[in-house]
Amino acid sequence: MNVSEIHTLLVEQFGESKVTGIQSEAVDPWIEVAPEALAEVARCLRDDDRFQFDHLNNLTGVDYLEPDPKKAKEFDHEPHVEVVYHLSSYSLRHRVTVKVKLPRWKNDEAGQLPEVASVSDIWAIADWHEREAYDLVGIHFTGHPNLRRILCPEDWVGHALRKDYEFPLEYHGIRGR
Amino acid sequence: MSVQVEDPRVIEFDVRTDEMLVNMGPQHPSTHGVLRLLLRTDGEIVHEVTPHIGYLHRSAEKIGENLATPQWIPYTDRMDYLAGMNMNLGFSLAVEKLIGMEVPEKAMTVRVLIAELGRIASHLVGMGAYGLDLGSFSPFLYAFREREIILDLFEEVCGARLTYSYITIGGATHDIPDEICIPPGLAALIGRKPTEKVSWMQAVLMFLEWLEPRIQEYHTLLTRNQIFIKRTADLGILDRDAAISFGCTGPVLRGSGVEWDLRKDGEPIYTRMYEGYDFDVPVAPFDAAPPEAKLGDNWCRFYVRMMEVVQSIGLVRQAIEKYPSAEGTYREPYKMSTKLPTDECYLETECPRGAMGFYIVGTGNAEPFRVRAKSSCFCNLSVTAPLSEGYLLGDIPAVVGSLDVVMGEIDR
After folding, report:
1. What residue numbers bound the domain in which A106 lies?
2. Out of B344, B363, B382, whose CB is closest to A27?
3. Is it the case that residue A117 has pLDDT exceeding 60?
4. Which residues in chain B land under pLDDT 70?
5. Fewer Cβ within 10 Å of end Cβ, chain B: N or C?
6. Is B109 exposed, middle or buried (0-12, 13-18, 19+ CB in 10 A)?
């Protein structure tokens, strides 16, 4: 099944308010899902016999922001954060990319992490991938059983893959820059 | 041997023992690098495992946002440092997919040849180190003797022995050399003079001819060794559904009975490379398995790797046969300043340790806006906790070793 067909079926089931868009021109076409509907759409993608996406290949976050004001004019994207889910099915041999767009900060207050539902109860590997996305990109996955940093130390400040991240000057007496 | 105790606190005569936290790693020799496991033990029985990773985190993804794509290839070498060639290939293919680049047939043949040699070298370390984990020292020495020759051959091709950066966007950095002196290690093994000149391909064939019968010796040393079987069979059983849910790939997935190899089931840009090659995908259960072995246990995972070495030997031979008649050049030129389109792509390739994925987002600059390396070992390691609970403390290295993780790839 190709991505357009998957999108049509999802829109039939959930409506356009939950399955908000498709980009079929991209190298890897993707479907955009509203953040509040992610958990139910993800569960349907895994459990529905037509989809059977039993494998979560990859889960990651991307921070769309151009911190350099000179380059910001040519930058096509509005500032936002995306969570990207790459799914595939062993039995039906198809692939899909699902995206959720979130604000960079919850309620536009810097430091308040944006929230999206965790899918760790749907695919077990999402547990670790979400911890990594939390650690490096700064996304809060609600309902995650153990949302701690995974690669950085637990007392690390900030989220390194945010585009406006500033490298700390000092960490436990170790000079940074 | 798993120990079944209904209430793990009650061992005998209702004697209660205190729980103890045992810290295994990050400098423990059997944790394959800097993995730290926090074990909650009751006597000898482990009933909670918490892996702590990140000791080798080098911010490779953040660095990638500031470099043109060819400049990031050396960083991929340093992820899975035992299979640098395969990592280079994965990233190069992902960039080629993003910009829609076609690679000539000759370059593809070189890539298959090199990637499969890399797989043999990597599985040799996996096998040797696993023997070492279980207290058998000799297979490690034999495995490194063999691997050394592959490294010598790679050195003749690209000058490097560990971090190659050889396979690059558009093909490979150099063509295969015409004439070399037989690498001294190989010359000593096969009784030739190291000053003798042969073609590189001939040297590879000489090596394969020498390696192939040795695999039987490894089976005698490890696979069919009763002590090895006792320590691996029926231990660390990962069932099919758990393997899929935990996103396991590569030998770990195939050891649990899922027939899935990206060289056959992957995306066209990758499977095209392997078109016309004849090879099998070893999947558990095996006829050669000892009666104690169960589907998805340590023994099966180990045996999948051993069988893959045999398949890779066949693939290298076929690539050598194809090479003289392959059309085109070894490299399609790619400029450092080539701008990436405003688009994104994700591509997985079959590395020795599983499906290594690269996700690249371009925004019209030569530097990717975001580059992500999805590590196969990261997913494979995440099953450690469910896999080792309820076993004896001494069995933990056997379980972790069977996953064959490389921390450089997990921590990136």
Report:
1. 3-175
2. B344
3. yes
4. 1-17, 29-31
5. N
6. buried
Q: What is the mean pLDDT of residues A159-166?
A: 88
Domain range B59-387+395-411, its CATH number among 3.10.20.310, 2.60.40.10, 1.10.645.10, 1.20.1250.20 = 1.10.645.10
Q: Is B367 on the interface with A (CB under 8 A)?
A: no
**Under the phi-then-psi rule, with left for phi > 0, alpha for psi from -120 to 50, and beta for the rest, what region is B197?**
beta
Instruction: Please tell me the total count of domains within chain A.
Output: 1
The backbone torsions φ and ψ at residue A128, rounded to the nearest 5 degrees and listed phi first, read -75, -40
Residue located via tokens 């895994």:
A46
Structure tokens at B81: 């440092």
Structure tokens at A126: 């999402």
Residue A89: C-alpha distances to residues A48, A53, A56, A57, A171 (Å): 12, 4, 9, 10, 43
Residue B33, token pair as written in the block: 């690098």
Question: For chain B, what are the domain ranges?
Answer: 59-387+395-411
**Candidate from A1-5, A83-87, B9-13 with smallest mean pLDDT:** B9-13
The tens digit of pLDDT for each residue in A16-32 reads 888 888 888 888 898 99
Q: What is the pLDDT of residue A2?
A: 86
CB A22 within 8 A of CB A5: no
CA distance B142 to B242: 34
From CA B55, how far away is CA B62, in angstroms rounded? Answer: 17
* Amino acid in position B216: Q
Which ipTM did the prediction report?
0.90
Q: Residues in chain A whose beta carbon is closer than 8 A to a beta carbon of chain B?
A: 26-28, 54-58, 60, 62-64, 74-77, 84, 86, 90, 93, 97, 123-125, 127-128, 132, 136, 149-153, 160-161
Structure confidence at residue B2 (pLDDT): 53
pLDDT tens figures, B154-195: 999 988 888 899 999 988 888 888 888 888 888 888 888 888
In order, the DSSP letters of B217-279 are HHIIIIIT-HHHHHHHTTSS---HHHHHHTT--THHHHHTT----HHHHS-HHHHGGGTT---
DSSP string of B335-380? -TTPPPPS-EEEEEEEETTEEEEEEEE--SSSS-SEEEEE-HHHHH
